[in-house]
């Protein structure tokens, strides 16, 4: 299989019209337990002229043993990055798409706290649906881009930064509830996770509104 290397082609084109590009990507959408996270990475004109860190890819294409190193390089490469969160309780209360929007708004608020003004930027959002604007993000220009995490280096950076942060959180939660083996499955529908749910029921970190019993086993 040919692995597509992400580039800054789209970002450079957008920077002709905007002072900043912010790329956002989510992780954890399909998990049975744990929060959803949205990573955000900033590209400015100076960054657009720098080399892309070696090994930077969409987080799904980076082997797990290498992800932390790639995420650290990505975080050092961009001028600013952030991760926003929405809990499993919030997912149950407002639904997954609204929770993604909430997490994205929180990531953007984190960037704002560090001096970034999102309203001056254009936001690249991986996927084909803008879940940020309905979350109440006024004054933002959001452009969904299918496969942005594969093709755009900024979205790949946001993806791997968020993935490593969420995986680390799931390992912490595993220490409190080791029966579900979240250190391995990160809350996704693995066979061991499904068996643990059958044996122990749902924890406070599971998404109780989901039809977990009918969720397909992923690995």
Automatic annotation (TrEMBL):
<comment type="function">
    <text>Endonuclease that specifically degrades the RNA of RNA-DNA hybrids.</text>
</comment>
<keyword id="KW-0464">Manganese</keyword>
<protein>
    <recommendedName>
        <fullName>Ribonuclease</fullName>
        <ecNumber>3.1.26.4</ecNumber>
    </recommendedName>
</protein>
<keyword id="KW-0479">Metal-binding</keyword>
<dbReference type="InterPro" id="IPR022898">
    <property type="entry name" value="RNase_HII"/>
</dbReference>
<dbReference type="GO" id="GO:0005737">
    <property type="term" value="C:cytoplasm"/>
</dbReference>
<keyword id="KW-0963">Cytoplasm</keyword>
<dbReference type="GO" id="GO:0004523">
    <property type="term" value="F:RNA-DNA hybrid ribonuclease activity"/>
</dbReference>
<dbReference type="InterPro" id="IPR001352">
    <property type="entry name" value="RNase_HII/HIII"/>
</dbReference>
<dbReference type="GO" id="GO:0046872">
    <property type="term" value="F:metal ion binding"/>
</dbReference>
<dbReference type="GO" id="GO:0003723">
    <property type="term" value="F:RNA binding"/>
</dbReference>
<dbReference type="GO" id="GO:0032299">
    <property type="term" value="C:ribonuclease H2 complex"/>
</dbReference>
<dbReference type="InterPro" id="IPR036397">
    <property type="entry name" value="RNaseH_sf"/>
</dbReference>
<dbReference type="GO" id="GO:0043137">
    <property type="term" value="P:DNA replication, removal of RNA primer"/>
</dbReference>
<feature type="binding site">
    <location>
        <position position="126"/>
    </location>
    <ligand>
        <name>a divalent metal cation</name>
    </ligand>
</feature>
<feature type="binding site">
    <location>
        <position position="26"/>
    </location>
    <ligand>
        <name>a divalent metal cation</name>
    </ligand>
</feature>
<keyword id="KW-0540">Nuclease</keyword>
<feature type="binding site">
    <location>
        <position position="25"/>
    </location>
    <ligand>
        <name>a divalent metal cation</name>
    </ligand>
</feature>
<dbReference type="InterPro" id="IPR024567">
    <property type="entry name" value="RNase_HII/HIII_dom"/>
</dbReference>
<dbReference type="Pfam" id="PF01351">
    <property type="entry name" value="RNase_HII"/>
</dbReference>
<feature type="domain" description="RNase H type-2">
    <location>
        <begin position="19"/>
        <end position="219"/>
    </location>
</feature>
<comment type="similarity">
    <text>Belongs to the RNase HII family.</text>
</comment>
<keyword id="KW-0255">Endonuclease</keyword>
<dbReference type="GO" id="GO:0006298">
    <property type="term" value="P:mismatch repair"/>
</dbReference>
<keyword id="KW-0378">Hydrolase</keyword>
<dbReference type="InterPro" id="IPR012337">
    <property type="entry name" value="RNaseH-like_sf"/>
</dbReference>
